[in-house]
Amino acid sequence: xxxxxxxxxxxxxxxxxxxxxxxxxxxxxxxxxxxxxxxxxxxxxxxxxxxxxxxxxxxxxxxxxxxxxxxxxxxxxxxxxxxxxxxxxxxxxxxxxxxxxxxxxxxxxxxxxxxxxxxxxxxxxxxxxxxxxxxxxxxxxxxxxxxxxxxxxxxxxxxxxxxxxxxxxxxxxxxxxxxxxxxxxxxxxxxxxxxxxxxxxxxxxxxxxxxxxxxxxxxxxxxxxxxxxxxxxxxxxxxxxxxxxxxxxxxxxxxxxxxxxxxxxxxxxxxxxxxxxxxxxxxxxxxxxxxxxxxxxxxxxxxxxxxxxxxxxxxxxxxxxxxxxxxxxxxxxxxxxxxxxxxxxxxxxxxxxxxxxxxxxxxxxxxxxxxxxxxxxxxxxxxxxxxxxxxxxxxxxxxxxxxxxx
Length: 406
Description:
This protein is an alpha/beta fold. The chain is 24% helix and 25% strand. The two termini are 17 Å apart.
């Protein structure tokens, strides 16, 4: 009987992660990280620089080309204390962070606030430097964030200029350190193009220009999509069962040309670089199913549990992509921009890819549940091997190439 992910016990996806196994800093060389390869139940160890030699000619790698914005702001209080503001997403729900970066003053955002108890609601926080001023007001406290209003002068400057001027690299909270100059480049993939994420798609941090050139020389195809990593990536699963956990909507941006290429080359192996790329590809399949089953002129979105309710649709990838492509052409759009909250957990059947390049994730996290859905109970075997063989964990940690169990 197929598992219903809503009733999964989160404690079943726990493991002991010693603090010394967490990589606090990146290695000197991106591609010097270890690479664990899992295929048909067998684990082998190598280094990431060898990835091009591990893949067959004709394989296609799909990268998430999102770019991390300097979304961390530190304000000094007149009393000497500090308040940290971590920008997450526009408050209106109609824009992604990429769109908001072009906005002029004022702008409302959902944010995490460090030291919020020290911030009196009736006062504003201010930074001034070189005739540029940024002022922030607290509007309201939401369930798991704050709504803040940003004002700046000169008001004609885009918000991106303010973040470039005042912002810092938004390192994951579990690193428990301040960002340094190295993080500015290393917490960013070498192929990042489209600004809009508040966290890096960390599977891509291992790739170097040399690695990409070797992949091309070996006739490995490389395609790009975009998922802007949002607030949900930092949200721990606190509920006892998955039905009590809410996934944040994240924006995806995919070119029509990519959809057409994918549709025409379905016979070749497809590998997602990172969980964000995998979630995007799987979301595209289900968005196509929605369009095929209920034709519409509107661009659909995908909620957290919706795919499980459509599981019996029985559409092929070809049929799904055809429906999505036809909708975009009908609307004369050259790209698909929409939102997904897809949760991939055991009980979910992967539709689109053969393998996944990914790092090693936190216990009891939605990312670990995705890995368990991808390779089954062998996730425990893989993580035990990594722990026993000095692999480095989390964002700046080592990598793995996981082939899906058939």
